[in-house]
């Protein structure tokens, strides 16, 4: 229950008591008529102002109450508190008006006689006080609620900024880690790998020119150990390289290379970890498609999508260059060019299918590949 409704209910009860008391003490005749008419009008005014929020309605009701008082007599002065309350509760009205209206009603009620004027003046004063007090309290509550909402929004905004900063920092750290892994892999391959390869070749040469059968087993053992070391290095380099390939980063790098000539848009949805071979397959298909667009497209827009679904991957590359309508089916790839044939071959290797078709809406490469199990 709202505070204004509680105020109106309390004032209605006091008005009813005042009217009943006035009748019981014998100041007014017609008990039934006075009680019913006054209470019904008062209750109607309270209910109407509670339901209808039209700003000038209280003034219309105020004028109506004064007219009823002038025409029908003093009993209608008991309606004055009910029209005073909605006038005084509006926070947008000046304090001078909130003082003038109760004073005017109190002054008019004097003409109803002392028996009516005293309780009406008291009720009007109480109604105006309760209205102003409720108005101030609700304004404070509204302000506090607004301040709380603003503070909460600021907290949420700062949390979002902090989260984005953390994500950006983590992403930078991840990219730095990938670059470092690539650097280590290159260092091992270029330095240790080459030195070990040269040593293996030299060892094979020593084995060829060696004539001492007693030394041969030792040379074979050293050559075998060096061969095992070389295999271990290759495995380590491949593992480092596998971990350092980031599909999203690779796709973004490819798109950036097309930005100067085309309006490019990249959409990715990549959640599951994939093997290095699969990543290379996706990057290879996109690269072949973009190369084909860069060489032959007459359009100015490119769209690339790499999306992971529940059971398959979808690779979609499109440009808006106008082409002669043609559907390059799987059987037609032999006559469609090496680049398109490479796209088909890469997809087929992973159990997928490639469809490439051209037309007035542009050139489209659509590849679907089952997810790895």
Commentary on this structure:
By secondary structure, the protein is of the alpha+beta class. The protein has 3 domains: 3-143, no CATH class; 169-244; 247-370, Histidine kinase-like ATPase, C-terminal domain (Heat Shock Protein 90). The protein has helices at residues 3-24, 31-51, 57-72, 80-89, 95-109, 114-209, 216-244, 247-256, 276-296, 338-349; strands at residues 263-269, 301-308, 312-319, 326-328, 353-359, 362-370. The protein has a 6-stranded mixed β-sheet with strand order 1-2-3-6-5-4, with helices on one face. The longest helix has 96 residues, at 114-209.
Biggest sheet features: 6 strands, mixed
Strand numbers in spatial order across the main sheet: 1-2-3-6-5-4
Overall number of domains: 3
Fraction of residues in helix: 55-70%
Note the total helix count: 10
- Work out the number of β strands: 6
Shape: elongated
How far is it from the N-terminal to the C-terminal residue, by CA? 62 Å
On the 0-100 scale, what is the average pLDDT?
A: 79
Could you tell me the radius of gyration in angstroms?
45 Å
Strand content: 5-15%
How does the helix and strand content classify structurally?
alpha+beta
As residue ranges, the low-confidence spans are none
Compressed to H and E, one letter per element, the order equals: HHHHHHHHEHEEEHEE
């Amino acid at each position: 229950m709202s505070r204004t409704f509680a105020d109106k209910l309390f004032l209605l009860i006091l008005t009813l008591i005042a009217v009943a008391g006035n009748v019981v003490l014998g100041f007014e005749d017609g008990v039934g008529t006075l009680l019913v008419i006054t209470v019904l009008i008062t209750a109607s005014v309270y209910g109407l102002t509670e339901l209808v929020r039209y700003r000038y309605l209280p003034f219309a009701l105020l004028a109506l109450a004064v007219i009823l008082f002038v025409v029908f007599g003093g009993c209608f002065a008991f309606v004055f508190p009910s029209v005073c309350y909605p006038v005084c509760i509006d926070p947008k009205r000046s304090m001078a008006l909130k003082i003038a209206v109760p004073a005017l009603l109190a002054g008019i009620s004097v003409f109803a006689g002392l028996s009516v004027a005293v309780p009406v003046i008291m009720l009007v004063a109480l109604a105006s006080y309760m209205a102003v007090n409720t108005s101030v309290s609700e304004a404070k509550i509204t302000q506090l609620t607004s301040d709380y909402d603003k503070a909460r929004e600021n907290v949420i905004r700062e949390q979002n900024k902090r989260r984005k900063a953390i994500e950006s920092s983590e992403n930078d750290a991840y990219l730095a880690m990938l670059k470092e892994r690539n650097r280590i892999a290159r260092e091992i391959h270029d330095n240790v790998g080459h030195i070990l390869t040269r040593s293996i070749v030299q060892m094979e040469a020593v084995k060829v020119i060696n004539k001492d059968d007693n030394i041969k087993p030792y040379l074979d053992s050293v050559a075998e150990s060096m061969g095992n070391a070389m295999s271990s290095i290759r495995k380590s380099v491949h593992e480092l390289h596998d971990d350092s390939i980031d599909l999203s980063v690779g796709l973004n790098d490819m798109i950036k290379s097309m930005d100067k000539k085309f309006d490019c848009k990249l959409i990715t949805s990549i959640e599951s970890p994939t093997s290095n071979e699969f990543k290379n397959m996706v990057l290879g298909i996109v690269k072949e498609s973009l190369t084909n667009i860069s060489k032959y497209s007459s359009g100015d827009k490119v769209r690339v999508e790499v999306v992971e679904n529940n059971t398959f991957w979808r690779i979609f590359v499109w440009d808006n260059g106008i082409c002669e309508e043609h559907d390059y089916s799987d059987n037609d790839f032999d006559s469609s060019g090496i680049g398109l044939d490479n796209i088909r071959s890469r997809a087929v290797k992973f159990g997928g299918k490639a469809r490439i078709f051209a037309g007035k809406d542009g050139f489209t490469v659509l590849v679907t590949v089952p997810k790895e199990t």
